[in-house]
Amino acid sequence: MNDSARNRANGFQTMKGSNPFSQGGPKLPASGIKAFGIIAICIVLLVVAFNSAYKIGEQEQGVLVTFGKAQSVTDPGLHFKIPFVQQIFKVNTTIQGFSIGYDMNSNVSRESESLMITSDYNFVNVDFFVEYRYSDPVKALYASKSPVDVLKNVSKSCIRTVISGYPVDAVLTTGKGEIQSAIKERIIADLEKQDIGIQLVNITIQDSEPPTASIMEAFKAVETAKQGKETSLNNANKYRNEQIPSAQAKADGIIKEAEAKKTERINEALAQVARFNATYAEYVKNPAVTRQRMFYEAMEDVLPSLKVIIQSDGGETQTILPLESFTGNDQPAIGE
C-alpha cells in the first residue's frame, strides 16, 4: 500500500499542488529567496545585539554567569556578554530592610513574631526593624536559595534569646540600647558562620509594650513613679549640695575654736606645771615656811566665802565678821 492509499484509509485527503516546494508546484524566484535570507539575517543580528549588551545601574552589581558558573562581578555601566551562552543576574547593593513583629504596609502587629517572654516570666510585645545589604553578590545568589529569609530566621532566634535574658522593666524602659547591641552582635556572629553574602547593617527596637491594656497602664504608672523618684533624688542632691558648704563652714569654725581652746588649756597647764615646779623648788629649800605660806594663801581663797562661828566654853556662840583680821596680823590670836 502506497502513501496515498494509507492516507485515504486514515481519512486524510492528499491535495496535489498544495506544497509550493513540491516537484509539481510553482517555484519561488531567486530574488525572493535572497530577500528572505537577508531579513532572517537582520532578525538574527538584532536578537544577538539585544542579548549581548546589558546595563548595570548605579546601585547594582551584576553577576556574569557562563554555562551556570559565575565568572565575574560587573560594576555599574554598559557591558557586553555572549548571547545564549552567558547570563547576567543583577543584585541590589543598597541598604534594604524588613520588619519583625508588625506589617510595614498596614502597621498591624503580628503577635506570632512580637510576643516574647522575659527573664522574670513576663510577656511583652517587641517590634524590630532590620536593615541589611548584600556584601557578596555571588554568595547571595548561590550560597542560599533565599538569604533574606535566612537573615530573618536568624534575627528572630537571636531576638528571643536576648530578650529572654532581660527583665521586663529593662525591655520596656532603660535597657533598649543594651538589648539592641547584644542582638546585633549575635546576628553578625551567626551570619559570619552562615557566609551567605548578606550583611546586617543595623537592628532597632521600634516599639515595646505589654500585651494587654491593663498591664500597659500599670507599667505607665511604674514609669511615672520612677520619674518621680528621679525628681526627688535630684531635689535631694540639690539640697545636699547647698547645705554641705554651710555645714562645712560651721565644722571648720568648731574645729578652729576647739584648736584655740586646746592651745589655751595646754598653755595654762604648762603654766601651772611651771608654777608648781617653782613652788616645789622653794619648798625643798625651806619646807616649814613654804608650807605655812601655802596654808595662808589657801585660807585667803577659802575664808572670805565662809561664816565663822566661835563657841565659848560656856556654850555661847558668836559669829565673827569680817574675816580679814584672822588672815592678817591678828592671825596668831586664833590659836590662843
Describe this structure in words.
A hairpin with a 5-residue loop joins strand 10 and strand 11. Residues 6-25 and 330-336 have low confidence and may be disordered. Among the domains are: 33-91, no CATH class; 95-211, Band 7 domain (Tetrahydropterin Synthase, Chain A, 2-Layer Sandwich); 286-335, no CATH class. With 336 residues, the chain is of the alpha+beta class. The strands form 4 sheets. Strands 6, 7, 8 and 9 form a 4-stranded antiparallel sheet that branches. Helix 8 crosses helix 9 (287-302). The termini are far apart. It has helices at residues 3-9, 30-52, 111-114, 137-142, 147-163, 168-174, 176-194, 213-285, 287-302, 324-327, and strands at 53-56, 60-66, 69-74, 77-80, 86-92, 96-100, 115-117, 123-134, 198-209, 308-311, 317-320. 11% of the residues are buried. The radius of gyration is 57 Å and the shape is rod-shaped.
Summarize the structure.
The chain has 336 residues and is of the alpha+beta class. 52% of the residues lie in helices and 20% in strands. Helix 5 (147-163) crosses helix 7.
